[in-house]
Amino acid sequence: MESLRIYTEKPYRLRGQVVISGAKNAVLPALAASLLTSGEINLSNVPLVKDVRTMLTLLSDLGAEYELGKKSLRIKVEKILSYQAPYQLVRAMRASILVLGPLLARKGRAVVALPGGCAIGTRPVDLHINGLQKLGASIKIEHGYIVAEAKKLRGAEFEFEKKTVTGTENLVMAATLARGETILKNCALEPEVSSLCELLVKMGAKIDGIGEETIRIKGVDELGPADFRIIPDRIEAGTFMVAAALTQGDLILKEVEPDHLGALIDKLTISGARIEKLGRRSIRVIGSPEIKPQDVTTAPYPGFPTDMQAQFMVLMTQANGTSIITETIFDRRFAHANELIRLGANIEIQGDKAIVRGRTPLSGAEVMATDLRASACLVLAGLIATGQTTINDIEHLDRGYERIEEKLRKLGVKIERLKNNNNHRMGEKK
Ligand code: EPZ
């Protein structure tokens, strides 16, 4: 078990510049797309996070060869050697479901473990399955596995009952090699979906309606090689923007895509932070001593992202007044609230709402990370909690943040990573 320890004699005021990495949720579908072609895919601006390594392990089991550079990745699936995505990999990373569509499209067969639930809720894949069945796949669930077959997928019209990011990505990828035209309705609008479509077009796919709710894909016989740059991680950017607002800091974020940050810029501006766009790919966030409360409801893009809900909750604990945070995407995404309460926050959970009563000074303690964004929220809390904060089980954090402690250290934060830190297990029943 690894931990992060933050020493906070007095609350930090983050100042300086931070370079945002490529988006985890854009590189994962891009890697899955490499299954669709025997050509080489060259990706740049790749974040070296744990989920990328997990996906590469899965893809090499399926027949991929790859070369991982400092921030680049060359991957080629000359031949698909296996079509099984085993449970222990899928359990470790739900995004493994993204191999289902490409395997069916290229190989006509896929056996992928059901992802099961995780810390933020039940994580069904019924919409992925219904969509692929509409494209002609025969799918059955056996012993916790999705067993899918399709001699040749055929184009069809399919409407998603609800917006699903990886569901849309799976169906678009499958449709690129189907016979005829596929029309997908009520598609997710996240930038990561559009970015995947742009990669597929570079590989030779015929896709219209990129970035819209209806996407049309005309199947082609095969896809080819492509070079592609991974878009900036809007959630990592959001996390550092909140850090600046929280610490009355003055932070310049580089390598961001401001157009992907609209909902967050709006909410942080309402809370009192000042945000300036400094040219094409850089923004400046200046925190205010007075943080205003506000209600926030998570929603599919371009609404307020669920992946920023935990981070924003920390900010609202420092607001002068009461804020209501409503989580509409996942059914159990408030685990971080209990840990924040241990640091001194005043939060009451009522169903899908968290009532946050600020302003409550936070004091350092030992806390537990439960999922990726909850871990990020605890790091943010540690920046303002006086005394020492130790965040245990930061394997979750490493899944989606590249060297976060190095980036924070460069901004003046006294933070260190403790390897095999078992002192929090003291007193555990032997
Ligand atoms: C993607 O997950 C992201 N992961 C998540 O980021 C993100 O929180 C989520 O989208 C929402 O924005 C990746 O892109 C790898 P969904 P995904 O399918 O695709 C329901 C992070 O922290 N649903 O858009 O799994 C589902 O239960 C992670 O980086 C069905 O009912 O999410 C949820 O309520 C966490 N049936 C809603 O749709 C389905 O078949 C949205 O889920 C699929 C989804």
Describe the 3D structure.
Helix content is about 30%, strand content about 25%. Helix 12 (about 370-385) links the parallel strand 22 (about 365-370) and strand 23. It has 14 helices and 24 strands. The strands form six sheets. A four-stranded mixed β-sheet has the order 22-23-1-24. A four-stranded mixed β-sheet has the order 2-15-17-16, covered by helices on one side. It has a four-stranded mixed β-sheet with strand order 4-5-3-14, covered by helices on one side. With about 425 residues, it is α/β, with parallel strands linked by helices. The site of ligand EPZ has 25 residues, from helix 1, helix 5, helix 6 and helix 12.
Key phrases:
single chain, 430 residues, alpha/beta
- The proportion of residues forming helix, as a percent range, comes to 25-40%
- Distance N to C terminus: 17 Å
| C-alpha-based Rg, rounded | 22 Å
Largest beta sheet: strand ordering: 22-23-1-24
* Helical segment count: 14
Mean pLDDT: 94
What does the main sheet amount to? 4 strands, mixed
What structural class do helix, strand and pairing data support?
Answer: alpha/beta
Strand-residue fraction? 15-25%
Q: Any ligands, ions or cofactors bound here, and which?
A: ligand EPZ
Stretches where pLDDT is under 50 for at least 5 consecutive residues are 425-430
Shape: elongated
* Tally of DSSP β-strands: 24
How would you classify the quaternary structure? single chain
